[in-house]
Specification:
about 150 residues; mainly alpha; two-stranded antiparallel sheet; about 75% helix
Length: about 150
């Protein structure tokens, strides 16, 4: 919708009015933080299960049922993580194109400070001391194409 000038103009007009646009941006920030938190939790679980799979001695000590349960969890986390990261990318992209056309509200101390804090928090999550727990291995489909590729 953003590519349609009438929608851009309406959004720009709404941003000038204030309250509704600020609420919208606050919801976008909440969504961005939620999606990143959820995707990072998934990446951590994927990392843990992949490490467990590599330790064949410990893996074999688990019951067949436990192994299958963890492999199902791995598949579910991979799928969820992909979805969360796709949605997070879209919300960050939205911030990008909104801030190119609508500048004023983002310069307001309340909204600007909150946005900066959200971005700093998210960067800390991605680059901080625990980021090594987010590193996961890629997997390939039977056709040789990448199934999962997390670059963190």
């Amino acid at each position: 919708m953003w590519t349609i000038p009438a929608h851009q103009n309406r959004m720009t007009e709404e941003a000038k009015k204030g309250k509704s646009f600020v609420k919208f941006v606050n919801m976008l920030m909440n969504d961005t933080t939620f999606l990143l938190d959820e995707s990072l939790d998934c990446l951590k679980r994927i990392h843990e299960i992949q490490e467990a799979l590599e330790n064949t001695e410990e893996w074999e000590k688990q019951s067949r049922e436990q192994q299958q349960s963890r492999q199902r969890q791995l598949a579910m986390d991979e799928k969820q993580c992909r979805s969360y990261l796709t949605l997070a990318t879209e919300t960050v992209d939205m911030f990008h194109y909104l801030t190119q056309k609508i500048i004023g509200p983002f310069l307001d101390s309340h909204l600007g400070d909150r946005l900066a804090a959200m971005l700093n928090f998210n960067l800390q999550q991605l680059c901080g001391s625990k980021c090594k727990n987010l590193k996961v291995k890629t997997q390939r489909n039977t056709d040789g194409n990448l199934k999962n590729c997390w670059i963190v």
